[in-house]
Description:
Chain A is α/β, with parallel strands linked by helices. Chain A is built from twelve helices and 14 strands.
Amino acid sequence: MEQEIKVAVYGATGYTGVELINILLKHPRVKIVGLTSQSHTGKKIGDVFPFFEECLGDLTLTQDVEEEYDLAFLCMPHEQSLELVPRLLNQGKKVIDLSGAYRIKNPKIYSEYYGFEHGYPDILEKAVYGLPEIYRGLIKSAQLVANPGCYPTSVLLALYPLLKEKIKIEKVVITSLSGISGAGRKPVQHFHFPEMFGDFFAYSLHKHRHVPEMESVIKEVGQLDISLRFSPVVVPASRGMLSILSIFCEKIEPVELYIETYRCERFVKIASEPPHVKHVLGTNMCLLYPLWDPRTNCLQVISVIDNLGKGASSQAVQNFNIMMGFEEGMALNTIPNFP
Amino acid sequence: MEQEIKVAVYGATGYTGVELINILLKHPRVKIVGLTSQSHTGKKIGDVFPFFEECLGDLTLTQDVEEEYDLAFLCMPHEQSLELVPRLLNQGKKVIDLSGAYRIKNPKIYSEYYGFEHGYPDILEKAVYGLPEIYRGLIKSAQLVANPGCYPTSVLLALYPLLKEKIKIEKVVITSLSGISGAGRKPVQHFHFPEMFGDFFAYSLHKHRHVPEMESVIKEVGQLDISLRFSPVVVPASRGMLSILSIFCEKIEPVELYIETYRCERFVKIASEPPHVKHVLGTNMCLLYPLWDPRTNCLQVISVIDNLGKGASSQAVQNFNIMMGFEEGMALNTIPNFP
Amino acid sequence: MEQEIKVAVYGATGYTGVELINILLKHPRVKIVGLTSQSHTGKKIGDVFPFFEECLGDLTLTQDVEEEYDLAFLCMPHEQSLELVPRLLNQGKKVIDLSGAYRIKNPKIYSEYYGFEHGYPDILEKAVYGLPEIYRGLIKSAQLVANPGCYPTSVLLALYPLLKEKIKIEKVVITSLSGISGAGRKPVQHFHFPEMFGDFFAYSLHKHRHVPEMESVIKEVGQLDISLRFSPVVVPASRGMLSILSIFCEKIEPVELYIETYRCERFVKIASEPPHVKHVLGTNMCLLYPLWDPRTNCLQVISVIDNLGKGASSQAVQNFNIMMGFEEGMALNTIPNFP
Amino acid sequence: MEQEIKVAVYGATGYTGVELINILLKHPRVKIVGLTSQSHTGKKIGDVFPFFEECLGDLTLTQDVEEEYDLAFLCMPHEQSLELVPRLLNQGKKVIDLSGAYRIKNPKIYSEYYGFEHGYPDILEKAVYGLPEIYRGLIKSAQLVANPGCYPTSVLLALYPLLKEKIKIEKVVITSLSGISGAGRKPVQHFHFPEMFGDFFAYSLHKHRHVPEMESVIKEVGQLDISLRFSPVVVPASRGMLSILSIFCEKIEPVELYIETYRCERFVKIASEPPHVKHVLGTNMCLLYPLWDPRTNCLQVISVIDNLGKGASSQAVQNFNIMMGFEEGMALNTIPNFP
Lengths: 339, 339, 339, 339
């Protein structure tokens, strides 16, 4: 039997943590040895989520992980990841951080967009942005992978073919729709079921943390210095993300370019009609639909992912597989539960 | 007691028809004397919708309306309205047409976007576009009001302050989210409950009938010849519409302009934060939220309506009130059912 | 112009409070002079619910109501109603209490089911149970009306024809499904949108507060001492309630009995097929569907209401109309918003 | 490498067919060699469901399966299964039939409940009812397995501990709530999204096909001749089933009995509080919650399954595994997607 990698999940009781555990339990080369939770410290995981009882019945949620392990997945608030990462790296652990704490090279962004000073610019420098379709080579040998946000994943995969080809882009206007799980598991008034049921609304129109994350990758990969007009919207669904990009750029025939760019990618496909969010729920897939609109001289791209899948936890496992030299799709779904 | 206006509703069993009847039943100056339905001809309305039995129990759904009446509301397919309108006008009836058959002055648009030749260009010429906040004066004396589509209502009210002031606009990118009732009452595969539940997707990205409708009003009111980049999306809710406009235009301070433009309007309000669709469901309200984004030099405007309310049936009643010289808000809600 | 009744709403920011205000604003004989809220004291109602701003813009949410008024609606937690009612009655106010604090004559029930000692048995004695179809006569002259719970309303209206006729009943098994608004407006984990979306589950199977409320009316009206087997269930909808009663009783032909019992009632109708919750949302209606099952010798009755309508706030207004001698249906809907 | 079993799926484009394919694609010992569809004959499966394109891209939907195979899963209408089964058995194929055509031994039931004469009483006799927790021994050597309906699965697993112990039962009252996928994939008016959204209602109260199916197993296993009072309800969710049983029987301590009965079963667990449907979605699990109510001398049992999982397709794969001598849980989930 092949050797198992021992992993810890920090922040096991949020949505990304639960999704991650769910995937890791199907992974033939992983053993989960530790789970942490701020809100449920001391409980068994099966007391919080009964469906985990059988597989993880003996695991108690702790503040920290004492057991030996090889790699930590961090599903915690940004501020907590910020401080935990240096400690784990010092211990020689590999880390995949699902928070935003190490996604952006420029530390100044953090004080403006996250509200804290980033005291570890050197670690920022070493962190690899975990979007495999762009940074696979670096991920392979990374000690710290900063797993991308859900909005950036859906948007950057839609832009990458243009960036790679250095297409000249003038303006990008993005509307992204997200299911409510993207806002986390903590109950709040406007996501209380009776209020969100039948509701949908835009938010954070002035300033969203994912904007500098997207712009910094665009700059790095495409050598482009553009400001995105980004409007996030929540819709009454649990999961799923749909991004609509209107890109004003030099005229191209996009379908061929998009197909070519992702020809060897297993988790990015070009759809032949506008894709449905429901076709990617529970999977690691991103479906793209590019379209040139001659009326407005605009490239329209539709991108769908599962915000907890390719937008978070399954992408983290994809990164894990790359880091460990495993087959990249190990334990990852491509077919959604339907309906 | 004041005199009642006798009205007929053609196409009474679709969603806009039902919503219209519901409002008209609360209207103190209206008597419904005839209802038609293609699909349920010969049935009583109470057999199709039991909740109408008590108020309209004796009314049978017919192919045509024989009774004498003053005004007809048409909630039928475009092609049927197209042919019925001339006949009713000849009979001296007033008509409020909720279809698209008489919304656009240029008859050529119909062959391109609706798939039929429009044989009544003279009537097109006389028809008044029923958006009261823009065309109130003309509506007062119109014999035929072409009630706007839901997408155009939400978009044009968001653009009107700019059009009125002749603000120079370079580009407009619009994403509009709609509840499923906007697609009509006929069951189809992708709106079958198990499939639409948890799903959301963009559609008609190449060509949507409401685009020329919007562009022709923009041209008429703002003397602007612009092509809109318009992306409609359906989300898993029954009702409601949210439009997100990214407008690249000369720099303005929008809040004052928007408040000023709509100061005397009862059904358009400027919200102080991004408005929720749920706050307008069941009402005739439109809530607007304008915001200048200095990062992208872009005016962002959020607009919410109920697609069956201000986007269709309650707006039709608002037009009716104007045409009849009644108080404009008669029978119209401003407060939503909540939650 | 006819005289307005001045009313206060205690607990204005919960779901029953909001629904009540919404109805009262349409009531031609009501003036709202005071609103209280524990959680939002000091804010204007329009800051909490922007859609109330126009109609109630000047009203500030207070801890108590200082203004003169005639009648108070209490939409507060049971414990708060318990103590407030005696004080208001002493001041000569009329009171309609939507909490459970004065619904059950036997004060001992309160320690067992509500967890508090009930110190006002004399007031319990005087309180009238506000189910108009059963207690209309007493409501007319009541100073304190204890407005029924949503489950009891749906169940008791389904049982009343049997109770009135003193039909011998052996067993009653009830399953009641409720939308989530019945659980209140305070955000909690399992009603957080992503968790309740697609979920449904039974709860409080051992002991539910509404059981003694139902049993005490059954005993009083039907002289029957039976223990109900009652299973409440929550389903992923905002509003609505569906009760399914399986009644083992002497053989009857129920349809005629039910129609006869409610022949003169405006808000209770006998449906000719199993009624949909959606047909009563936003209304004060109760639809009943009785059916004798010869296979099991069992009377099956289906009952649907809006839990916030006939199950709470519109029923409170119905009681108000009766107490004030107004037309009983004033301001009350019988036609739902659809779809 | 171990030998693959070649299977055909008849009726591949309905919900149970799609779910089945999804599970079979994860099964290490299965090769799908043929798919049929009445409604999409001639299309590739990837044209109907794009997410199947990669795994099954070359498979065309046919009327019949010409390829050689070992076992057929039938996900077709009852009438079609009725006629196909004899033909396939004659060819020596093994068959798992997900329709109701071979579930009930007494052929007379079919004319009364299904509306057709059953011309194959001898095959009915040989068919094994595919509820592994009751009939595992017979399933092992069956050529034809009649896969249970979703309602019977949830109800019979809740009753089995009593039947096995020959507990005396007087009455059983059942309310079962189902997601809409249980009604099939064909669009119909009342399951059109805008109408079902926020709705819930009971149906088929007089006569439901699953009643004789349940009663015949109860008779066979428990030697009990009882008539069930059964009320099915649809709720606004895509998947899931919750059954609430009120069982009037001799007094027992149920928890120990239920735990003991299912101690060795992997897919039936006794929950320590009322289980959520969401905890079994996408799995083959059944969660049971038994409770003795001393007030009514009634045993209450709550049972949850995924109607398309343990209620249909994953149970079919469980039966398949048993028939083939594979590990019973092969390819089957026990952990739900959450949220």
